[in-house]
Amino acid sequence: MYTFILMLKDLIDNNNLHWFFVFFIFIFVRWGIVFFTSLRYKNFQCKNKKFYTSVIIPVVDEPIDVFSKVLIEISRQEPNEIIVVINGPENPNLIGICKKLQDACSRVKKYKNISIKSIYTPTPGKRNAIKIGLENASKRSDITILVDSDTIWTKNTLSELLKPFSYSDDIGGVTTRQKIYRPNRNIVTMFANLLEEIRAEGTMKAMSVTGKVGCLPGRTIAFRTSILHKVMPEFMTEEFMGIHKEVSDDRSLTNLTLKMGYKTVMQDSSIVYTDAPVKWKKFIRQQLRWAEGSQYNNLRMSKWMFKKAKLMFFIYWTDMLMPVLLISIYANIGLCYLFKSFGVQIETISYTEALWLTILLIIVGAILSFGSRNIKVLSQLPFYYVLLLPVFIVVLTIVMVPVRIIGLMRCADDLGWGTRKIKNEGI
């Protein structure tokens, strides 16, 4: 913001227009479009219809205590069936948990009609696991809920998740409000929590208003079962630049649902908790996978988005372009000052204050710029998030910007499923 003010003064005094000045204005225009659209968001409120619900949980090597809690919390909300698909290495402990919970449910009148079964496949991969789970779901299934194996449901997660389907037959997919479990463990989880909250309060709500959420995040998402059956062949075989992509299964299912003419929405009152990496290395790997999956789908869906979902097109393409533009602008500023130091006459803004004061003003300006655009989220978080804004802004600049660019450059790679190291011999 400090640099913007200096550039504004230079424009007024000398008619010099700087690219960073234009970029800064664009950032606030984009924020305004997303923010004011998101203000129109409302949860779906209606009486639920009677749906037959199938929960599919692909799992590889989840810790026993975590997976037990996941299954228990889901079973408490009485879905009709829970199908656990263990893929990759054999894991008798996970099978044992499923059998134990099925036995426990059968002895309690309230839960005795819940079917809990586990299926093992040696072929690793979440897409294949979803396909197997769907093939083993009841033919009576109306709604299929896909759940990550480390995602904890809260009270009324299922009943709230079903309300949009009851509200309109045009709605084909629904995602939950996803929160980070124990977000304040360290700086990594706090940063992940901040990003998650900004996304949920901003772009997710804005796109949901239009009925076109571009990606229903896969921690817990629900689709009409009939849709999944229809799109499964394409879901399993789709390619990008001649390569089958295993990543971004949730975005792919969202794309296919939208292309069938259904709406995709978020139900903010259906809350789930998910874990976040506690180390930077794993966090960066996760973000790189998400950046790759998001951007290759942006490229694949560009024509459809431009015709059918203008806001989605605007959000996703600006997300892709902003890191590239920001790096270009920083490089331009750096080169200008480098050439100027060698005596080349180039018009640049002048930081007339002492170096320490200039740095301080730039930091304060960055905090005011970022903080003003995210004041709603920051007001809902502990006060020390505001104190840590300089750290978060540095990470956004020197870590997340390069990650987004590298993800775009690696769109034709296949990073596999998640951050787990699994030998993928079956694909």
Automatic annotation (TrEMBL):
List all membrane-crossing ranges. Answer: 20-41, 311-333, 353-371, 383-407
Picking any one GO molecular function of the record gives: hyaluronan synthase activity
- An example Gene Ontology CC term for this record: plasma membrane
Q: Which domain of life is it from?
A: Bacteria
- Keywords on record: Cell membrane, Glycosyltransferase, Membrane, Transferase, Transmembrane, Transmembrane helix
Q: Name one GO biological process term.
A: hyaluronan biosynthetic process
> What protein is this chain from?
Hyaluronan synthase
Species for this entry: Sharpea azabuensis
